[in-house]
Amino acid sequence: MPNEETAPMLHASGLTKRYGRRTALSEVDLSVPAGRVVGLVGPNGAGKSTLLHLACGLLEPTSGSLRILGSRPAASAAHLARVGFVAQDTPVYPSFSVADHLRLGSRLNPSWDQELAERRIAQVGLNPDQKAGRLSGGQRAQLALTIAAAKRPELLIFDEPAAALDPLARQGFLVNLMEFVTELGAGAVLSSHLLGDIERVCDHLVVLSDARIQVAGEVRDLLARHYRLDAPPGGLDPLPAGVEVVRMEQGSALVRADAPPRVPGRVEPVTLEELVLAYMSRADAPAAAVGTGTAGGRR
Question: Which site in 17, 157, 234, 297 is 20 to 30 Å from 36, CA atoms measured?
Answer without folding.
Answer: 17
